[in-house]
Amino acid sequence: MKVSDLAVSRGGVPVLSGVGFHLGAGDALVLRGPNGSGKTTLLRTVAGLQPPLSGEMMGRDQVAYAGHADGLKSALTVSENLTFWASVFGTGRAQVAAALSAFELEALDDRRAGNLSAGQKRRLGLARLLVTGRPVWVLDEPTVSLDVAAVGLFADAVRSHLGQGGALLVATHVDLGLGEVPVLDVTAYSAASRISAADEAFL
Ligand SMILES: Nc1ncnc2c1ncn2[C@@H]1O[C@H](COP(=O)(O)OP(=O)(O)OP(=O)(O)O)[C@@H](O)[C@H]1O
Predict the structure, then answer these.
(1) TM segments (predicted)?
(2) Closest ligand 1 atom, residue 12 Cα
(3) pTM for the predicted model, two decimal places
């Protein structure tokens, strides 16, 4: 995926401008920046969940997004959720089985998503990435609620994905053990007209 001169806004206010990056096969890029600096806004825009102010994005149809909202169907079981997404993305049973295995969800496959713990829900949300068949994973704080073992499962899934020619754009404060990963500090792209979080407090 290639992003050039992208400007993004939240609530009508420009947040970042001039953002550009290229993600090729096997590439990972970590977004950094303090709370409110625009990481979520950038990720949501790249994923097509909100329109950009301006700029170019090539390869957006290759993106699978996992954000804060888990997007699970709470009345469906773990397996049914994954099967549902497999049908949406045109993949099949093999991907569902691989997703259950990668996130150690087999023992929970008959449990309704609504009855999962926070960390289990997060594991299911991340397992969904595997059934999309999409190469570019765009992830917003994917390890929130995960215990150490589950962070390890996630890191393994990411390494495997990158090894198979996938790509990753991720906002995370956790070291995923991926070795040297390029970092994009979003504060370098703060839109000039943006009201700083500190100023907002006094409005
Ligand atoms: N629904 C909204 N309406 C208006 N402004 C918003 C809305 N959501 C977020 N913002 C503002 O947009 C700016 C960027 O927020 P964003 O969530 O992209 O930051 P972030 O870097 O992901 O932060 P965090 O690390 O806290 O998740 C912030 O100043 C935030 O207050």
Answers:
(1) none
(2) 4
(3) 0.91
Looking at the structure of the chain, the number of domains it has is 1
Which residue minimizes the CA distance to atom 10 of ligand 1?
Answer: 10
Tokens 């970092």, residue located: 183
- Given ligand 1 and candidates 17, 37, 68, 139, which is best to mutate, with the most ligand atoms within 8 Å of its CB? 37
Give mean pLDDT, residues 65-73: 86
Closest ligand 1 atom to the C-alpha of 37?
Answer: 21
Please report, for the domain that includes residue 177, its CATH number: 3.40.50.300
The ipTM (two decimal places) reads 0.92
Reported as a pLDDT band with limits 50, 70 and 90, residue 3 is very high
